[in-house]
User: Fold this.
Amino acid sequence: MLRWINRLTQNGKFHPMWIVLATSAIAVVAAMIAVPAIYEGAKEPKKPSPVAVKQIPAAANLPEPDSGQHDLKPAPAGVQAVHFTPPAESEMPSGEFGDTVKLGRNIFVHTQTYAKGFVGNGLNCVNCHLDAGRKADATPLWAAYVKFPAYRDKNKKVNSYEDRLAGCFRFSMNGTAPDYNSKEMIALTTYSYWLAKGAPTGVELAGRGYPKLENPPLAPDTTRGATVYQANCALCHGADGLGTKVNGQYAFPPLWGSDSFNAGAGMHSVKNAAAFIKANMPLGKGNSLSLQEAWDVAQFVDTHDRPADPRGK
Ligand code: HEC
Ligand code: HEC
Assistant:
């Protein structure tokens, strides 16, 4: 789209003011159309055959984690990752159980409305776990659910699934997790359980977390990252990175500042952010950035101020 505008400008067919107007119009229209479409996208019918086996690449040439903040390690060479498709939205059950699944989905997608009291920033869970927690390569809930309880380096203990949810409330949402027996926690767990229906437990499902990223050819660089940002991200997230609100809620979430994730969050690790961005951003055009661009822009995002790590680190 930007290239198109550039071409028109170079041809001299546009007065520059048109570009300003068009850009504003695009941002507003995108906010009104794209965002509901993302949420609705989750309703697309999915093929029912849930389990198939896929060979995942050898881990030999994958880089070491750059910090202790993430715990999604590549599977050892030759280990088979299991392919899985969650049930379609239209298959959501009815009755009390179904109501709880739906509440869990609502909390996940509209956290600002359904669990506001537990959140200390402007984000919704779905902002990082795309398609209502369904999208492979965007840390889908179905792949997480079957891997807990699990030991995590981050807090050096075996974590329950609730512990893991609580981690994202504390760091990604800069808030305080609801009690493990609260309706919010039970609903989020029930929604995850339902999304994982038919998946084997204790198995690494293909699409868990983010695809592992190779190290970039050059060390990540903030100056290059700023250029990548202005060209590919500013349109939605704002030139100032503070996101764009429509009717008091973020249509495009902030990447830094007081309404964003805190410095203890998984997304604050440059490696995690680079992996998320490479696979998923710009929204709808995942994998369009080069490896270098993804690392550079992640480094750039990482240099900005955000709420402090609540552990005082
Ligand atoms: C700012 C982005 C962001 C937001 C917002 C966010 N998360 Fe996360 N979440 C992450 C990242 C990054 C990871 C993976 C971290 C890692 O590699 O260990 C993660 C991991 C998880 C996992 C474990 C995934 C796995 O496969 O082990 C669950 C479950 C989860 N988040 C649930 C939630 C819930 C529930 C919310 C809302 C209350 C939420 N997240 C909000 C970024 C986010
Ligand atoms: C077309 C609009 C659009 C563009 C362009 C775009 N994003 Fe996003 N981005 C979004 C939306 C919308 C979300 C939240 C997704 C959701 O809620 O389903 C998001 C989420 C994110 C998140 C996680 C949430 C948060 O606030 O931290 C990060 C990080 C991110 N984008 C980085 C980038 C980067 C870096 C670029 C440029 C390479 C980029 N985005 C380009 C629309 C966009």
Summary: Residues 69 and 266 are 6 Å apart (CA to CA). Residues 51-195 form a domain with the Cytochrome Bc1 Complex; Chain D, domain 2 fold (CATH 1.10.760.10). The chain is about 40% helix and 5% strand.
